[in-house]
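## tool: complex_structure
## caller: assistant
## args:
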Amino acid sequence: MIGRMTSTDSFSLRPVGRVKSPYTEASDVPRGLGAKHEAEGVLEIAPELEEGLTDIEGFSHLFVIWVFDRSESVELVGTPPCDETPHGVFATRSPFRPNPIGLTVVELLRREGRRLHVRGVDMLDGTPILDIKPYLSGVPAASLRRGWLDAVEARKTGLQ
Amino acid sequence: MIGRMTSTDSFSLRPVGRVKSPYTEASDVPRGLGAKHEAEGVLEIAPELEEGLTDIEGFSHLFVIWVFDRSESVELVGTPPCDETPHGVFATRSPFRPNPIGLTVVELLRREGRRLHVRGVDMLDGTPILDIKPYLSGVPAASLRRGWLDAVEARKTGLQ
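## result:
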């Protein structure tokens, strides 16, 4: 399960576990502005890595780094579901990324051995997990600027 | 520059760019409780991916997903610099991870073409970048529990 560098320019990574999720198709996952990610799921870690979960139950929230393993293409510029204008892939959460890596913050509900029951999954069932990290602090909302997303929200709010 | 799955169980990823950082040795990077990451650096994206940065300048903060490319080992349980007791790797930000992936939130100061000038780097100079995502929202501090880290902070504050 240990992924390591294979050359100076390519990294071979192996899943540390898989996501159990109620979603089996990309179209099942709520998308776009105001999408709520309240779905519960399980992060199932490989048996030989269970020791790495020691003390994780003390954290309320976790970062999950995972692979869009059913995403087949790359779009450097694309139009998100909530907007009509295209944006660069690094300014969106599009699955069509140069490296198909996803990042999700989940709430840890409870741990059962090597299974972490969580709320807030937006991955498909069976999604490979690359890493889990504790969520330690966030940027205060008052300090955030969110570019095109703020503009879309302002426009849609104005229309309502 | 396009990394893709090579088998059902292993993913080959290639850097989308590199970090320019003032830190050249791991011992240069502030570590432990209360470490401030105010260092400025540059995220330099590969020329052929520059289009993917379109509109990124509207965001104040970014997630950077990167590789601990100078980390050689894995410790499923280890003792962080700020504590005396060991914790599971998935409950820490240790570099000795099953997949040597790092995650940092940086503040975007300005963009110059394919170079993003940022504040808050904690990576070494030359670190490979796997992905950049916009920071859209954070978990409110009042909702966070931070396990062993809260316990260490409470103990250290009590001692002062």
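## assistant note: Chain B has one helix and ten strands. The beta strands of chain B are 5-7, 10-13, 17-20, 40-45, 61-67, 77-78, 87-88, 101-112, 115-119, 128-134. Handing back to user.
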